Amino acid sequence: MRQVCIPRYGPPEVLRLEEVPEPALQAGTVRIAVRASGVNFADLLARQGLYPDCPKPPVVVGYEVAGTVEAVAPDVTGFRVGQRVVALTRFGGYAEKVVVPAAQVFPLPSSLDFPTAAALPVNYLTAYVLVHLCGHLQPGERVLIHNAGGGVGLAAVQLCRLQQAEIYGTASAGKHEFLRQQGVEHLIDYRREDVPAAIRRLTQGRGLDLVLDPLGGRSFAQSYRLLAPLGRLVLFGMSRLSGGPRRRLLSVAWQLLRLPRFHPLRLMQDNRAVIGVHLGHLWEAQQRLRPALETLLAWAAEGRLRPVIAQTFPLAEAAAAHRYLHERRNLGKVVLTVAGSEAQASGAG
């Protein structure tokens, strides 16, 4: 089978398509013939050597796949060969086949095609944790979503809209019209506007109830100062560590030095909360994640959620997919497809 490997740290061009034996089935697992695999910003950081949780090269990244069951371990029940599924993989997803613990595999509703299904697990599960489990967003509350046009950002927009919140979003001007159609009421062009000043003006100085910030650096401190009393700041990434396709260690060090420190006494005096989310460190919390992803799949099947695919790339063009993300060209999710996915995308197993 084919897989895309990171043989060494570097720009997108280091990604290598290679032929390897198919993964062996183990107790408690399911082997999936992959038809689509999600691309996440964490994959880019891993390729640059900026993602500490990723194994050292050579490594195959990829957190989510959709496809069909090819084989089931004898001790696994509830799945059958040929069944359409979506799975959380935590590395190994950039491949034609992957072996996954059965607890991380979910039946795929017949109304969802493979690329759409691959766009769901990481982005929407992250957004669900941000908005519901940590943010406790209530109807009518004011929420700011940084990078609202990205994969997690759009997922959060849709979840906040379902909660009937008042949505503020940062994005480049070219994405504003689309985001308005998605339900973002107040848009700020972060490239041309002073985001804190714009928020203070738009909220008439009242501040925000919830801020979702994946940026890092000084943005964390700015977001904190925008909170209203009892406001929550949820941090879920540091995208500013990667300013382009190549690793720049001085830039990384500068962003780390600009991170704020949140003192407990200050938090109490301000009546604000700062919460950190790292989905990769929740893999063992299946009792919380599994019901959440089942809910999200049901909502998508009902049409309440509509994952947005920015662009699909063949597996062999993973480098182009990474560069597309580096250039911030995406409105929504970037997905890798495996040969045969188009023919099987709409068929039920």
Top keywords for this entry?
single chain; 349 residues; alpha/beta; Quinone Oxidoreductase, Chain A, domain 1; Rossmann fold; 2 domains; seven-stranded mixed beta sheet; six-stranded parallel beta sheet; 30% helix; 24% strand; disordered C terminus
SSE blueprint and pairings:
Layout: E1 2-5, E2 16-19, E3 29-39, H1 41-47, E4 64-72, E5 84-88, E6 97-101, E7 105-107, H2 114-118, H3 121-134, E8 142-145, H4 151-162, E9 166-170, H5 176-182, E10 186-188, H6 195-202, E11 208-213, H7 219-225, E12 227-235, H8 249-257, H9 264-270, E13 273-276, H10 286-302, E14 309-314, H11 318-326, E15 333-337, H12 341-344
Parallel strand pairs: 8-9, 8-11, 9-10, 11-12, 12-13, 14-15
Antiparallel strand pairs: 1-2, 3-4, 3-6, 3-15, 4-5, 5-7
Helix pairs in contact: 3-4, 3-10
